[in-house]
Design goal:
The protein has 447 residues and is of the alpha/beta class. The chain is 52% helix and 13% strand. The protein has helices at residues 7-15, 22-39, 43-46, 64-74, 98-119, 121-136, 151-170, 197-208, 223-238, 241-255, 278-290, 324-328, 341-349, 355-364, 374-390, 397-406, 408-413, 426-438, 440-446, and strands at residues 54-57, 79-83, 177-185, 214-222, 257-261, 293-296, 299-302, 307-312, 332-335, 369-372, 421-424. Helix 1 (7-15) packs antiparallel against helix 2 (22-39) and helix 6 packs across helix 7 (151-170). The longest helix has 22 residues, at 98-119. It starts with 6 loop residues before the first helix and ends with a helix. The relative contact order is 0.14.
Length: 447
């Protein structure tokens, strides 16, 4: 995280995709910058500075999860977004909370492996190229009792190889099919389990490593696919996995971030009968958030300095319904604002991934030019806000349902109307959505 963004830069990056919610953006930006600051402290003090975990509170559809998605792309650190409602307490069938850190470690390993593969990419490409040319033009071999290839034959072979190399780089061999031998580990036995079968099988493959028999498989593929596969294989041989593991574990421990979505679904202490207790999941989460050592297949991982950002709508429950120990571990609370007509207008037009821009681009693939007038955008925003007030408030997600309903006919007829120009104004919006708005019962089901 040497070239970490300043808080202002982080907020500016988030502003490109998320409208409003400045308090949440600022809290997240400061938390990220504090990780960078901590790395620059003397070692004795560094271990004492614990992350200030954040809890984001706000109704659905206001940008909590979107902040997490955008953060994942911004931070140069292992980042995991996961739903708290996925977990069950220890002893029940389902995922236990330790898998959060195991998944985060896996992300860290892939991240470091990707960086190291990039460093050796040039060398791996050269080796893969040589390997592929050997498949296309097998090298001259000398069998015992036979004459060695003459200098002329060797020179001819070398010239042909260089021609092939040139053609390969120019893409002239892209349509040719080659046969490659690939190796894969085979499990000599199956796994019988009611949960996480693939995970158990993968872990066993890793643990048993060299003990498993290798199965050679011949595969036919086009030259570009073969080259891609060979580059991956050669890069894997060049990467030092011990170094990858050391670096990845260090990154996870020192700068890992976990975004716990839907935290409100495990709040509340009412638990009847033999059901999985929500409080049990909270109690299991507590040691990880407080700081403990989790065993992963790559080695032990300490969670003392992993940053946790939790988010929840808290419609039914309140943050105070969480167990006090867990509340204490999330000292920073940020409330996100509900969205209204003005915010909807901005959401439709301002972000880089704005809904209007998406729809225009989608229909442009059918050679249809779609134009939205300013009053049509205001009308769409007004209708979305109105439906949110009258029925369930689902925030900006309402815009998706309104837009789909509005463009339903145009999208359906698009292939037959190539080259058409469609202008959408407020009158068109009212006409398409009038029936739905009139009947509250109907708008409940359609919008």
């Amino acid at each position: 995280m040497d070239n970490s963004l300043t808080p202002r830069q982080t907020v500016e990056e988030l502003d490109k995709y998320i409208i409003g919610q400045h308090k949440a953006k600022r809290a997240v930006a400061i938390a990220l910058r504090n990780r960078w600051r901590r790395q620059r402290l003397p070692e004795d003090l560094r271990d004492e500075v614990l992350p200030k975990n954040i809890i984001m509170i706000g109704p659905t559809g206001v940008g909590k999860t979107e902040i997490a998605r955008r953060l994942a792309k911004l931070v140069q650190a292992p980042f995991l977004k996961i739903e708290a409602s996925k977990f069950t307490e220890v002893g029940y069938v389902g995922r236990d909370v330790d898998s959060i850190i195991r998944d985060l470690t896996e992300i860290g390993i892939n991240m470091v492996k990707g960086e190291m593969a990039e460093q050796v990419r040039e060398k791996a490409e050269a080796m893969a190229e040589d390997h592929l040319i050997d498949v296309l033009l097998p090298p001259l071999r000398t069998a015992p009792g036979f004459e060695a290839p003459s200098a002329e034959q060797q020179e001819q072979q070398s010239t042909t190889r260089e021609k092939l190399r040139q053609q390969l780089r120019e893409g002239k061999l892209d349509n040719r099919t080659v046969e490659l031998e690939t190796k894969e580990k085979v499990m000599p036995f199956g796994i019988v389990s009611n949960v996480g079968m693939e995970e158990i099988e993968m872990n066993l493959k890793d643990m048993l490593g060299g003990l498993l028999p290798e199965k050679t498989k011949r595969r036919k593929m086009k030259v570009p696919d073969a080259l891609r596969l060979l580059v991956q294989e050669e890069a894997a041989k060049l990467i030092d996995m011990e170094k990858v593991t050391r670096e990845a574990l260090k990154r996870v421990e020192q700068s890992g971030i976990v975004f716990l979505d839907e935290i409100d679904k495990i709040a509340g202490r009412e638990s009847h009968g033999p059901d999985v207790s929500r409080e049990g999941v909270q109690r299991d989460l507590l040691p990880i958030v407080e700081g403990s050592t989790i065993t992963t297949k790559y080695g032990p991982v300490r969670t003392d300095h992993v940053l946790f950002i939790a988010a929840g709508a808290f419609h039914v429950s309140k943050p105070s319904d969480l167990i006090p120990e867990l509340q204490g571990r999330f000292p920073i609370r940020v409330e996100l604002d509900s969205l209204g007509r003005e915010e909807f207008i901005r959401i439709l037009t301002e972000p880089q991934n704005a809904l209007i821009k998406q729809q225009i681009a989608l229909l442009a693939t059918e050679e249809i030019e779609l134009n939205f007038s300013r009053d049509s955008i205001e009308e769409i925003a007004g209708i979305a806000a109105q439906v949110n007030e009258r029925t369930e408030n689902i925030g900006a997600r309402r815009l998706h349902t309104v837009m789909e309903r509005l463009l339903d006919e145009i999208s359906f007829d698009a292939p037959e109307k190539k080259g058409a120009k469609v202008n959408i104004d407020a009158a068109y919006v009212r006409e398409r959505l009038a029936d739905v708005l009139k009947s509250e019962d109907l708008s409940r089901y359609i919008l």
